[in-house]
Amino acid sequence: MKFFKYLLLLSLTLLVIGLLYVSIQSGNYEVSRTKLMKYPVYSVFNIVNDLKTWEKWGPWHDEDSTIMVTYADKTVGVGASNRWTSKDGSGSIKTVSIIENKRIVQEIRFGDNEPSDVLWDFEKIAEGTKVTWTMKDDKAPFIFKVFSTLSGGWENMLGPMLDKGLNNLDEVVKSQPLKYSLGEVKIIENQDKIFLGFPYKMKIDYAEIQKVFADAMPKVIDYAIQSGLKYAEFTPGALYHKWDQIKGETEFHIGILIEKNIKPREDMEIIKVTGGKNVMITKCGNYNEGDYEAHMAIDTYLKVNNLISKWPIYELYVNDPTQVKQEDIQTDIYYPLQ
C-alpha cells in the first residue's frame, strides 16, 4: 500500500515539476519557412490571398478529415475570413492587410485564445517567386507551450507543418495555367488626348477598387452612347494620378478616352492627357491577372534605360471582354516620360 502512495506522490511531484517547467518556457515564438516556386509572383499570391483555396493545400487538412470550414461573404483581400470546427477544436482566420504581390498579414485564432500573427512574404526573383510563411506570437497560451515542450520546441512543433503547407501550395500553383501574356516594352509617340470619367480618391483595397470599376465603367459608356458617340470613337480606361503603396492611397479616374469632346455629366470630369513620348506595354489576359508583372516590366525598362516617368499613367481596355477569349482580353499600359 505504501508503494502505491509513494508512486502516486512521485507522479504528482513529476506532474508539478513538469507544469512548472512548462510555465517558465517562453510564450514568444516566430517560426518561418521559405520555398522557391518557379511561377510568377501573382500566381502564388492570388492563391494564398483567396481563403477558399486553403482547403486544397493547408497541411492540417491532410491530418484531420473532420475539419469543417465556414466562409464569410468575403474570402479574398483585406477583411476575408473563415471559421472551422474539428474533433480537436475550433478556430478562425482573418486577413488584416495586404501589399499586392508582396505581403499578406493575417490573424489566426484557436478556440477562445488571443489571435496569433500569420505573415506571408512574396519576393519576385529571376527563378520565380520566393515565398516565406511565418507564424508568430508573444503570448502563446499555456496549452500551446505544453505542445511545444512535448515537441521539442516551437521550431519542431510548427516548422514541419509550414514546410508541408508550402510544398502543397507549390503543387497547387503548378496545376494552374498561366493566365496572361506580356508584349514588348517599347517607347511610342502619342498625340494629346481627352479623357472623360469619374474621379476617385480611396485607400488601396483591390476588392473595393474592382467594385468601383464595375459600377462606374458602364455608366460612362452609357453616357457616351447617349451623347452621340459611336463605339469606335472611345476606348474604356483608367487614368492614375497617384498610387502610394506605403500610405495605401490612390487617386484615379475611371472612364473613356474620347476622339471628340462631349459635355461631361455634373459628377464627371474632362482631363487633357498631354501627348509626347510614352513607355507602353500590352498585356493580354483577364483583368487583374498579370497587371503587377506588366507594371514591373515597365519599371525595369525605365531603370535600365535611365528614364523618368510622370503622372498620370493610364490603362486602356482595348477590346470587349465579353466578345473575346479570356486570354485575349487586351490592356495597354502607358507611362508618359518627362
Short summary:
The protein is α+β, with helices and mostly antiparallel strands and about 350 residues long. The protein contains eight helices and 16 strands.
* Strands, count: 16
Count of helical regions: 8
Q: Could you tell me how far the N terminus lies from the C terminus, measured between alpha carbons in angstroms?
A: 94 Å
Helix content: 25-40%
**Unreliable stretches, pLDDT < 50, 5 or more residues?**
7-24
Second CATH tier, the architecture of the largest domain: Alpha-Beta Barrel
Number of domains: 2
CATH superfamily of the largest domain: Regulatory factor, effector binding domain
CATH topology name of the largest domain, in short, is Multidrug-efflux Transporter 1 Regulator Bmrr, Chain A
Pfam families: AHSA1 (PF08327), GyrI-like (PF06445)
Domain GyrI-like small molecule binding: 185-337
Protein name: Effector-binding domain-containing protein
Domain Activator of Hsp90 ATPase homologue 1/2-like C-terminal: 39-158
Provide a descriptive summary of the structure in words.
With about 350 residues, the chain is an alpha+beta fold. It has two domains: about 25-175, Alpha-D-Glucose-1,6-Bisphosphate, Chain A, domain 4 (2-Layer Sandwich), CATH 3.30.530.20; about 180-335, Multidrug-efflux Transporter 1 Regulator Bmrr, Chain A (Alpha-Beta Barrel), CATH 3.20.80.10. The protein has eight helices and 16 strands. The protein has helices at about 1-25, 40-50, 55, 60-65, 140-150, 155-175, 205-225, 290-305, and strands spanning about 30-35, 70, 80-85, 90-100, 105-110, 115-125, 130-135, 180, 185-190, 195-205, 235-245, 250-260, 270-275, 275-285, 315, 330-335. The longest helix has 22 residues, at about 1-25. It starts with a helix and ends with a strand.
